[in-house]
């Protein structure tokens, strides 16, 4: 799950694009490290009717160590981006582990704490009240127990959905499905 999340998270993709950009910048800087040498060949005629071939050689100065500062800065920026990506990846993995553990805990809580027989409580209270076995106060207690059970089930389900949403969010998934 963590590998898929790291490939889908937009913040990691943005850092990766910055790294690619900085690599291109570094490669461009390194290509300009060596001096430009131009060789020109031509034919020249002078005023005194003297003519002949001409060879021209142009060499940029300084010869070596050109763009060293830019290359060093690009290397440093590339190293910083790599560290930033690693820290962000570690943070995402920690978030995923925490969210997954929370989801598992909420799922277990939902399965174990959910009141399965809450409808039966209401049915029994209705039948007993109709037969005259319960007073109105006891019937209202049964209805209150039903409402409290429904509220508890709803709260458990909401907590489960919130933890599922949190897991989907930190994982970079649109939907989370159990396998």
| Total discrete domains | 1
Q: In CATH, what is the class?
A: Mainly Alpha
Distance between the termini: 12 Å
Q: Strand order across the biggest sheet?
A: 1-2
Helix fraction, binned, reads 55-70%
Output mean pLDDT: 84
Low-confidence stretches: none
Query: What is the tally of beta strands?
Result: 2
The gross shape turns out to be rod-shaped
- Biggest beta sheet attributes: 2 strands, antiparallel
The CATH architecture: Up-down Bundle
Strand content: 5-15%
Please provide the ordered H/E string of secondary-structure elements.
HHEEHHH
Radius of gyration: 37 Å
| Coarse structural class | mainly alpha
According to CATH, the fold-level topology is Outer membrane efflux proteins (OEP)
CATH superfamily: Outer membrane efflux proteins (OEP)
- Secondary structure tally, helices: 5
Structural features, described:
- It is built from 5 helices and 2 strands; from the N terminus they run H-H-E-E-H-H-H.
- Helix content is 70%, strand content 10%.
- The model has no long low-confidence stretch (mean pLDDT 84).
- The chain has one domain: Outer membrane efflux proteins (OEP) (Up-down Bundle), CATH 1.20.1600.
- Strand 1 (37-45) and strand 2 form a beta hairpin.
- A two-stranded antiparallel sheet has the order 1-2.
- With 179 residues, the protein is mainly alpha-helical.
């Amino acid at each position: 799950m963590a590998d898929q999340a790291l490939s889908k998270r937009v913040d990691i993709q943005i850092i990766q694009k910055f790294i690619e950009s900085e690599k291109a910048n570094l490669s461009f800087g390194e290509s300009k490290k060596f001096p430009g040498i131009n060789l020109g060949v031509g034919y020249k005629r002078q005023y005194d009717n003297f003519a002949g071939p001409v060879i021209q050689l142009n060499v940029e100065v300084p010869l070596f160590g050109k763009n060293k500062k830019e290359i060093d800065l690009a290397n440093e920026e590339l190293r910083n981006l790599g560290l930033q990506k690693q820290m962000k990846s570690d943070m995402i993995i920690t978030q995923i582990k925490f969210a997954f553990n929370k989801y598992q805990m909420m799922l277990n809580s939902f399965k174990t704490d959910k009141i399965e027989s809450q409808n039966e409580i209401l049915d029994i209270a209705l039948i007993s009240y109709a037969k005259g076995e319960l007073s109105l106060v006891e019937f209202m207690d049964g209805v209150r127990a039903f409402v409290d059970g429904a509220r508890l089930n709803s709260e458990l389900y909401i907590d489960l959905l919130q933890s599922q949403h949190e897991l989907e969010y930190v994982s970079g998934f649109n939907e989370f499905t159990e396998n």
